[in-house]
User: Which sequence fits this backbone?
């Protein structure tokens, strides 16, 4: 059985690295836990780090966080669906919002539950996912201020998640100006300006963020130490907090080209002779006990640099071990580093065991 392993020491060191960055700059931050897909074993590891604010896009996951530690501030990080309003007010202390209609529903439900529900108003700043348009922000904010049992904790934006728009210094200055505009209009103070996700970490390291932007939501940088501007690992961080291990279930010397009439495979792809340079040559192939049901091959990188991933079917992954300096045998484990989206697939699979080192 294939399994994914979390390396506790590396996670702790990544967390300490980020926490020092944020605290030294008087920035508050929360951990985005959606990668963990509600796995209680791993959520406990996050809580053990000393995290006091956890963000997720699944209210069922926030419910698990509250069950483990009711004092942790939980944040629902996408505009709530109408059918989820009751549970969001119950299990999320804060939610990100972009619709007056939805916030009115949250207000009505918060009154029913005798709770104050906090909201962060998300502003559209070019990435074209969620967000109130800038020209509508003042009217929007004024309407929300009148709603009972709703507390506006701040404003925020989301960048790089849909269209790939990067959180430049100019973008964050624009966000800061929205804060100033609202405060001047309504004679209030906005506690939090949430400037984005892990993609903003390089700006913070360069001290290029405006001082008014005082909050960030971090997931990928914590688990993968990745600089999303360059694609490199941030110096001082680990890129292998998670690793995948899959067992070899077959090793056979086989031709590089299939024989017979060709059609589409289970993934809808067709084999092309143009992709093979060594026609008629064989290679030593190994089959691993994991497939497309649990992962996507493009998000995996073998620890053994001499291994080549050939392709995958629903339950098996084929690799070429011809050039490897290691002699593999049936039952051996092959280790892979995982990219963020690859980890999402794996952690969301009930068929992949989750372990801790």
Assistant:
């Amino acid at each position: 059985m294939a399994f994914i392993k979390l390396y506790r020491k590396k996670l702790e060191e990544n967390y300490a690295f980020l926490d020092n960055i944020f605290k030294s700059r008087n920035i508050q931050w929360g951990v985005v836990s959606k990668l963990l897909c509600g796995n209680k074993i791993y959520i406990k590891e996050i809580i053990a780090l000393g995290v006091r604010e956890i963000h997720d896009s699944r209210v069922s996951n926030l419910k698990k966080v509250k069950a483990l530690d009711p004092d942790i501030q939980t944040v629902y990080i996408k505009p709530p669906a109408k059918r989820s309003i009751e549970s969001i007010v119950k299990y999320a202390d804060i939610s990100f919002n972009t619709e007056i209609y939805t916030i009115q529903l949250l207000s009505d439900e918060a009154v029913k539950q005798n709770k104050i529900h906090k909201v962060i108003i998300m502003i559209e700043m070019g990435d074209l996912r969620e967000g109130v348009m800038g020209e509508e922000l003042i009217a929007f904010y004024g309407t929300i201020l009148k709603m009972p049992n709703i507390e506006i904790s701040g404003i925020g934006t989301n960048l790089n998640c849909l269209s790939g728009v990067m959180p430049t210094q100019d973008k964050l200055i624009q966000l800061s100006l929205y804060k100033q505009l609202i405060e001047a209009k309504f004679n209030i103070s906005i506690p939090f300006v949430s400037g984005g996700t892990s993609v903003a970490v390089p700006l913070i390291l360069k001290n290029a963020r405006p001082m008014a932007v005082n909050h960030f939501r971090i997931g990928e940088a914590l688990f993968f130490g990745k600089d999303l501007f360059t694609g490199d690992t941030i110096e001082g961080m680990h890129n292998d907090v998670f690793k995948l291990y899959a067992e070899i279930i077959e090793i056979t010397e086989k031709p590089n080209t299939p024989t017979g009439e060709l059609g589409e495979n289970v993934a809808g792809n067709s084999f092309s002779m143009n992709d093979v340079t060594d026609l008629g040559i064989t290679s030593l192939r190994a089959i691993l006990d994991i497939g497309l049901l649990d992962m996507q091959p493009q998000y995996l990188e073998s620890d053994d640099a001499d291994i080549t991933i050939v392709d995958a079917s629903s339950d098996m992954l084929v690799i070429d071990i011809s050039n490897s300096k290691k002699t593999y045998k049936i039952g051996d484990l092959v280790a892979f580093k995982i990219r963020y989206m690859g980890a999402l697939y794996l952690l969301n699979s009930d068929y992949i065991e989750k372990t801790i080192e």
